[in-house]
Structure of WbqC family protein:
Amino acid sequence: MIENGAVLPMFYLPPVDYFTNLLAFKPNVVFEREEHFPKQTYRNRANIYSPDGRQVLTVPVIKGSKNHTVIKDVKISYDFRWQRAHWMGLQTCYRSSAYFEYYEDDFAPFYEKQTKYLFDYNRELLELLLRLLKIKIDIQVTDTYEPAYPHLTDLRTSLNGKNANHTQQKPYFQVFEERQGFLQNLSIADLLFNQGPQALNYL
């Protein structure tokens, strides 16, 4: 049993605050795989900085993935060409950033191949992000659902767009900040594309 660690949800292109928490508790981190899928969370959506401000990228899931569906069983829907839309969105928002071209080939495959399950897709993306950020951690997942973890900091519900992020973030350069100023807690992709190898030092 992991003690003095944290249980984290598995997000799509997680926000910066997610990685701040992950670093604070690593290596004692376990990722929730058995929870019921909560809608309208970072599990299938991410925020990026567009020319018009905050833009939400949502991974559609197959109808029937209601709150009673276990997260590991939630299937991604490909009825809509969301991968093309997300990749075009990322290019539109970050093509002029300092490091988009540096990471472009790492991210592109995630918007071409079709992964069946949302959890698996998010996990593969997380593995990429950890490698790019040079964060070494073994991804451990839950085997059963536990409503509470007495020995862990439970971050399954606190890290969401409805709550203010836990850490006040220092501003870093963002491509469109002259339009709406610094936007806090966007997807880690925003930090990577703007800061590149310095992203870990920022975190």
